Amino acid sequence: MAVKLKEISKKKPLFTGGHRLCAGCGAAVIARQVMSMVQEPVVVANGTGCLEVTTSIYPFSSWNVSWIHSAFPNTASTIAGVESAWRALRDFGQLEENYRFIAFAGDGGTYDIGLQALSGAVERGHRFLYICYNNQAYMNTGYQRSGATPRSGWSSTTPVGAEHKGKPGRSKDMTAIMAAHKIPYAAQASPGFWNDLMLKVERALQVDGPSFINIIQPCIPGWSIPPRDSMKLAKLAVDTCYWPLYEITDGRQCTLNYHPKQKLPLTEFLSPQNRFKHLLRDENRSLLDQLQAEVDADWEELTARCAGSLR
User: Fold this and answer.
1) What span, in angstroms and rounded, lies between the C-alpha atoms of 55 and 59?
2) Considering only CA atoms, which of 21, 114, 122, 133 is closest in space to residue 72?
3) Which single residue of 27, 87, 153, 201 has CA 20 to 30 Å from 192?
4) Whole-structure pTM over 0.90, yes or no?
5) Per DSSP, what are the bridge partners of residue 273?
6) What are the domain boundaries of the chain?
7) SS (H, E, C) 103-121
8) 169 half-sphere exposure, CB direction, 13 A CA radius
């Protein structure tokens, strides 16, 4: 199955240019790809973060849809409330249109500050798609570590020096956390694999209940990469198996969406990023080896779980 680009190109864009995101920012690519797959009327909730502050500076907006800003902690609560209002209006015969509901939030507003609201909303069974654009730190406020920051990654609150070598612990497996709620659909995606990402959005919008897509998002200043390399890094994250592409339905059925023909060493993904440059020094070889071993073990576990399922 493939995305029908000719049909999409004829649609009015629901997310437009003219925003103030960094040149090459992965969040803009993600928003464009996600919104291109929306067919029905839609309401978008956008949590505080890079995507929100750069696309809604009064009196301008990059959103050609009904859009509502939420604070850091309550993006899921906001979209759940809107979905509940729509159901009530529909049941009373005051609204006939079949709406869709999408929430966008960064990893800080998903893994950490917004986790309680998100968990509650999906446990209640509200029908919405939650998109986490995951740049692996609080990039909007100065590159502080989040629950998504990788082990040994530099951030302004996990610096690199004589005593500390970046973040000491692993990142949360947020996709697995959401799948553990037994929701109809949970997945990982990358904007570098646009066809896979957009098809996952289409599937997620069709399920009757909550859905979640965790999307790796290269950050130009936070990862210290040139704007032209944004999608290159989005692809390398997948080809090194650092960020596998897979989906889980009903918390049980795991499908692997992409198996690299040649699994690249993790250094291919890490070395272009300034936040990992200390791992390339000889004295930190053990940290690099540990990170590679964790990626290898996670990949082996995932392929075993998804054995026989490749779409």
Assistant:
1) 10
2) 114
3) 153
4) yes
5) none
6) 5-305
7) EEEECHHHHHCCHHHHHHH
8) 7
How does pLDDT run across 77-129, given as a tens digit for each residue?
999 999 999 999 999 999 989 999 999 999 999 999 999 999 999 999 999 99
Terminal CA-CA length for the chain:
9
Residue 103's nearest CA partner among 128, 133, 124 is: 128
Q: Which amino acid is at 28?
A: A
Assigned architecture for domain 5-305: 3-Layer(aba) Sandwich (3.40)
To the nearest 10°, the Cα dihedral for 209, 257, 131, 15? Answer: -110
| Burial (Cβ within 10 Å: 0-12, 13-18, ≥19) of residue 119 | middle
Spatial CA neighbour of 166 closest among 135, 136, 208: 136
DSSP 303: H
Least confident of 26-30, 157-161, 294-298, 306-310: 306-310
- Please answer whether residues 24 and 227 qualify as being in contact, where contact means their C-beta atoms are separated by less than 8 angstroms: yes
